[in-house]
Design goal:
Layout lengths: L2 H5 L14 H14 L3 H16 L3 E5 L2 E3 L4 E5 L6 H54 L3 H13 L11 E2 L4 H9 L4 E6 L3 H5 L6 H9 L19 E8 L1 H17 L6 E5 L21 H21 L4 E5 L1 H18 L9 H22 L5 E2 L1 H25 L4 H11 L1 H4 L3 E3 H7 L7 H13 L3 E6 L2 E6 L6 H7 L20
Parallel strand pairs: 1-8, 3-6, 3-7, 4-5, 5-6, 8-9
Antiparallel strand pairs: 1-2, 10-12, 11-12
C-alpha cells in the first residue's frame, strides 16, 4: 500500500466536532446549515479571520518570550467544496471595513491633490523670489529660508491602507506592509497562482513575518522596503493537485527552510471521513453570528487605533491550570521528537506544535471572552486537539509527495521481498544486484544499512565470508513467513526461520 493510500486510513486526520469550543460548534453548525460546507473548511476560515482580527491588538506570553496570534492556514479541496461561498460569507465584514478605508483614502487623496496644487504654485513663487534675490544680490538668506520653509510644508501623500490581498509577489508583499498596511491578511479562495509565484519560493520573507514581524531589505535602491513590527495571517484554499505540484518542485526547500512547519493544513482528499456535525441541516436560528462579527470589528478597529497611538499590544496569558497543561504537553512533544519517537523524522513540525497550539487557543479565547486576557484550560485543550489534526495533515501530505530516503527505500525492499528471499537473512550482494536502483552502489547501501542497524531494524553479520543483513524488525511474523514459504515447523516448536538477532 502506498503512503498516500495508507494516510487516507488514518483516523487521526479526522476533526472531532466535540473537541471544539461551544461557540465554534454553534457557528460551524449554522454556517454548515446555510452553505452545506464541511466543518473542516468552516473551521479553517473562522480561525484565519479571527487570527487576522487579533494580530495587531494582541500578543501571547509564553515561557521564553512573546509570540504572535497570526496563523498560516491552508485548506485543500477539489472544486465544489464551497470554498468561495464560505469565504465570501465570513469575509463580508472585513471587506466592508476595507471599503470604508478605501473611501476614506479617496477623500484624503482629493484633499491632498488640492493642497499639492496650491503648494506647487506657492513653491514656484518662492523659487522666483530666490532666483531674483540671487540676481540682484539682495536678501538671499531671507529668500532661501522662505523657500526651504515652503519645501518643508510639502503635503504628504496619503497611504492606501489595505486589510487583505489575494495575490502578491515577495516584493509586492514587502511594499504593502512597509507602506501603510503593516497588519495584513493574505487571503484567497483560489491560491494556486500564489504558489506558482516567487512568494513561496522566497521562504525567508514568510518565515520572518510569521515569527519576527520584520524584514530588512538588503537592496540599496529606491525600491527597497524595510518592514518593521508587521503582522501577516494567511488564509488560503486551493486544489490538492496544485499543492502537490508545489511540493514536488519546492517541497524540500520549503521543508528545510521551516516554511512547511509554519503551515496549518487540512487536505480533504486525505480524510477517511468528514467531521460529523450533530443535527446538521436542522439549525433553527442564528447562533450569535452577528455577535461574532461585532467582536471581529472591535478587535480590528482596536488594533488600528493601537498602532496609530503607538501603544503596546495587549498580552494574553494562560490560566494556572492551562499553564500546567501547556507544560505537560510540551514535555510529551519533546519525548516524541527524540530518537525513536513518533516525530523523530519530523522534529521541525514538533518544534512548532506548542506555539501553534498557543496561537489557536489565544484567538479562540479572544472571541469566547473578548474582555478577558486569560486562556482557560478548556480552550487550550481544544487548541491542542485542533493543532494535532492540522499537524497530522501536513506531515501526511509531505510524506505522500516526497522522495523516500535511502533507508526507507531499503526497508520497503526488505519487507516486499521477504517471501521471495525465503528468510529474514539477505545477502548484501543480492541487494546490490536486485535492490532499489539508488542503492546499487556499496557506499550508499552501507550508509542506509548503518542507519537501520543503529535504529535496531537490521543486524549486519558475516557467515562463511559472505556479508548478510538480518531483517529483525519486519512487520511479517515468523509463522506467516513460514506458511508462505512452506517452511516446516520443527517438532521442537521452533521455526526454521527466525527474526531473532544472530548471537555475537
Amino acid at each position: 500500500m502506498s503512503k498516500k493510500n495508507s494516510s487516507t486510513q488514518n483516523i487521526e486526520l479526522c476533526l472531532k466536532f466535540q473537541t471544539l469550543p461551544t461557540f465554534a460548534q454553534q457557528l460551524i453548525s449554522y454556517i454548515n446549515y446555510k452553505t452545506g460546507a464541511a466543518a473542516e473548511l468552516i473551521l479553517i476560515v473562522l480561525l484565519g479571520i479571527m487570527a487576522f482580527a487579533c494580530q495587531d491588538k494582541f500578543d501571547i506570553q509564553l515561557k521564553h518570550g512573546k509570540t504572535f496570534t497570526s496563523l498560516y492556514l491552508l485548506f485543500l479541496a477539489k472544486s465544489g467544496s464551497r470554498k468561495s461561498t464560505v469565504f465570501r460569507l465570513l469575509m463580508e465584514e472585513i471587506y466592508r471595513l476595507e471599503k470604508e478605508l478605501k473611501d476614506d483614502f479617496l477623500l484624503k487623496e482629493k484633499v491632498y491633490e488640492q493642497k499639492y496644487a496650491s503648494w506647487e504654485v506657492e513653491l514656484k513663487e518662492y523659487k522666483k523670489q530666490y532666483s531674483k534675490a540671487i540676481r540682484q544680490k539682495i536678501d538671499v538668506t531671507e529668500a532661501l529660508e522662505a523657500l526651504e520653509e515652503c519645501q518643508r510644508r510639502k503635503p504628504v501623500v496619503p497611504a492606501r491602507k489595505y486589510l487583505t490581498k489575494n495575490d502578491s509577489t515577495s516584493e509586492g508583499l514587502r511594499k504593502i506592509l512597509a507602506q501603510g498596511s503593516p497588519s495584513l491578511m493574505l487571503g484567497s479562495d483560489e491560491a494556486g497562482g500564489l504558489f506558482d509565484g516567487n512568494l513561496f519560493r522566497n521562504t525567508p520573507v514568510l518565515n520572518s513575518l510569521w515569527g519576527e514581524g520584520k524584514i530588512a531589505d538588503s537592496r540599496a535602491s529606491r525600491d527597497s522596503y524595510d518592514v518593521y513590527d508587521a503582522r501577516l495571517t494567511m488564509l488560503l484554499t486551493m486544489q490538492p493537485g496544485l499543492f502537490d505540484g508545489f511540493l514536488e518542485k519546492q517541497g524540500k526547500k520549503a521543508k528545510d527552510s521551516g516554511l512547511l512547519a509554519r503551515l496549518l493544513l487540512i487536505d480533504m482528499e486525505q480524510l477517511p471521513e468528514l467531521c460529523c456535525i450533530p443535527d446538521a441541516g436542522t439549525w433553527p436560528d442564528e447562533p450569535g453570528i452577528e455577535e461574532f462579527f461585532s467582536i471581529l470589528t472591535r478587535h480590528l478597529q482596536d488594533g488600528m487605533v493601537r498602532r496609530e497611538k503607538n501603544e503596546e499590544r495587549i498580552c494574553i496569558t494562560f490560566s494556572p491550570e492551562a499553564q500546567v497543561l501547556w507544560n505537560s504537553q510540551s514535555e510529551y512533544i519533546q519525548k516524541k521528537i527524540k530518537k525513536g519517537g513518533e516525530l523523530q523524522h519530523h522534529d521541525d513540525f514538533g518544534a512548532r506544535f506548542m506555539e501553534h497550539s498557543s496561537r489557536i487557543a489565544a484567538v479562540m479565547q479572544m472571541f469566547i471572552t473578548p474582555d478577558s486576557r486569560i486562556i482557560t484550560k478548556d480552550t487550550f485543550m481544544s487548541a491542542l486537539k485542533i493543532t494535532q489534526c492540522f499537524t497530522n495533515h501536513v506531515i501526511s501530505k509531505v510524506e505522500s509527495t516526497r522522495e523516500p530516503r535511502d533507508d526507507e527505500k531499503l526497508l520497503t525492499y526488505l519487507e516486499d521481498n521477504l517471501v521471495n528471499n525465503g528468510s529474514y537473512e539477505f545477502r548484501q550482494n543480492d541487494i546490490i544486484k536486485k535492490g532499489p536502483y539508488s542503492l546499487r552502489r556499496s557506499e550508499r547501501l552501507m550508509s542506509a544499512l548503518n542507519k537501520l542497524e543503529a535504529e535496531g531494524v537490521v543486524q549486519l553479520f558475516k557467515r562463511g565470508g559472505t556479508n548478510y543483513v538480518k531483517f529483525i524488525k519486519s512487520k511479517m511474523e515468523v509463522r506467516e513467513l513460514a506458511e508462505k514459504t512452506n517452511t516446516p515447523i520443527l517438532q521442537s516448536g521452533s521455526l526454521a526461520i527466525s527474526k531473532l538477532p544472530i548471537p555475537e
